[in-house]
Design goal:
Blueprint: E1 5-11, E2 14-19, E3 24-27, E4 35-36, E5 46-52, E6 55-60, E7 63-67, E8 75-76, E9 86-91, E10 96-100, E11 105-108, E12 116-117, E13 127-133, E14 136-141, E15 146-149, E16 157-158, E17 168-174, E18 177-182, E19 186-189, E20 197-198, E21 208-214, E22 217-222, E23 226-230, E24 238-239, E25 249-255, E26 258-263, E27 267-271, E28 279-283, E29 288-293, E30 298-302, E31 307-310, E32 318-319, E33 328-334, E34 337-342, E35 346-349, E36 357-358, E37 368-374, E38 377-382, E39 387-390, E40 398-399, E41 409-415, E42 418-423, E43 426-430, E44 438-439, E45 449-455, E46 458-463, E47 466-470, E48 478-479, E49 489-494, E50 498-503, E51 508-512, H1 513-517, E52 527-528, E53 532-533, E54 544-551, E55 555-563, E56 568-577, E57 580-587, E58 594-602, E59 605-613
Length: 615
Amino acid sequence: MNTPITTLAVLDNNIFAGSYEDGILRSTDNGLSWTQINNGLTSTYINDLTVSNTNIFAATGSGVFISTDRGTSWTSVNNGLTNQTVSCLAASSTQIFAGAMAGGVFRSTNNGESWEPTSNGLSNSSKLSLAILDTNIFVGTYGDGIFLSTNNGENWIAVNTGMWGMTVYALTISGTNVFAGTSSAVFSTTNKGANWVQVSNGITSSPVISLTASDTNLFAGTYFDGIFHSTNNGTSWSLNNNGFLNNQFSSLIVLDENLIAGTYSGTISLSTDNGINWVETAGTASDINAFATSDTYLFASTSSVGVLRSSNKGISWNFVNNGLSAYVYSLLVSGSDIFAGTNYSVFLSTNSGTNWITANTGIENNTIKTMTASGENIFAGTFGHGIYRSSNNGSSWISVNTGLTNPYIQSLVGSGTNLFAGTVDGLFLSTNYGASWVPINNGLSDRNIKCLITYQTNIFAGTQSGIFLSTNNGSSWIDVSDRLINKNIVSLAISSNYLYAGNYSGGIWIRPLSEMITSVETPSSFLPLILQLNQNYPNPFNPSTKISWQSPVSSHQSLKIYDVLGDEVATLVNEYRNAGSYEVDFNASSLSSGIYFYKLHAGSFVQTKKMLLIK
């Protein structure tokens, strides 16, 4: 199955999957194999599925369809549906409710043979989700929160006390609780919507776009960070993404020409072919902040579970936290010792992480964001108190901030006798082991320095606006981000031939070092490692939005827009293009509100994504 899946439903031993392009698929062997079952469907863009008794209903851009034979055939049931762009469904034993994209809710009491509008008291905003608890019907809207009906949809009232983020993408029932996934968080009510409380502890991003419940288990699907799982009615959540590729990369390292990447979702992945293919080798519930390597081990620091160690170059990992704080920002290997910078102290291990002791005299109660070594000295960059230096292997520390005008240090790196410090407001250079600092920002259009790395006598700086290169110890900088999309760079790594850049939302990018170092005045393009169609932005939109994609190979490429009926409404690109990154504008001023799909063909690669136009 190679199609975007929008919804799932289960009836007896059958699993049904609704998709954007391929209609409805059915599996009778627990998902091992799938068969298309579209006989009778006039639209293959499926927005929702629901089961009522032994019948299954499908919400599409052409209205509602029913199957009475477990999907073998489908029949249109749209009598009375004045708006047939149906986005959501919910069913009780005797009634079915359908929410329309253009604003209405409809009710059927005869398995869809006829529908009647039941929208008294509802706003005109699009209906995105429905759920039924006993005689209570909840509908989630775009921008207007949640409405409740206690009389089978005859009347509706807004029930949003305690809630913020008023776009409600998902609703689900667990016992007597109702859960809502919104543009800001997950909320729960135990009193049928009289008031809501936030239950998102452990969920690291929003929006929450899908929810489902199974016995005592709750699952929340997020736009950026994948799937989270709760076993205690949402009191706490843990990441549940095994098998999912997360492209929000927080840290990178190259080891023996292999690329190792950590993510904000707590996974570590290994690539042995320059990033073309990846294998996940570790999964935690915490950000992977930094890597460091010794002669024998590879180490990874995390935001809440301490330090991991690998003895086989990242293939497998174990925790090494005896005596160590759980929140570790930074790591430094110096000779036979390893240092860990945490949210309040520096720790030292003299036995490769097996045991840790504090090494914080003079630097107590500081958040240690970054560490490096230069000569016989160790340096620690803090977030708020500048830079500290130890000349005795961490036994004691002194502040070395003369000339440093910003105390919020995000990156430190040494190059020969030079020491570079990246702050939230500029770069600084010390040529005397931190005794004094001078600003070096000539040519930097963005002074929020997220990461630094050196190659021979060259320094690369990653910022929120791209990557900059200096070939003269920071005296001047040039932008080497030509056509690099998603320029919020959070990590950099270097092999013998390539510079790798990890950004917050756009994966890992690669560029040959020879392009930048031998011809820095005419930099060429970064190339993506994978084919990727990005989500349009903004979304929802009115009337214009941007669509971007990346291709590591040259090919004939087409980008087309379709409505919910599958009819082509616009062609944005249809030509041969070289490998690279592209972005186009789509203006939908001539189209009506609703769901649209954009499909990219690039050689044999095909991908479709959904977008929402609201006028």
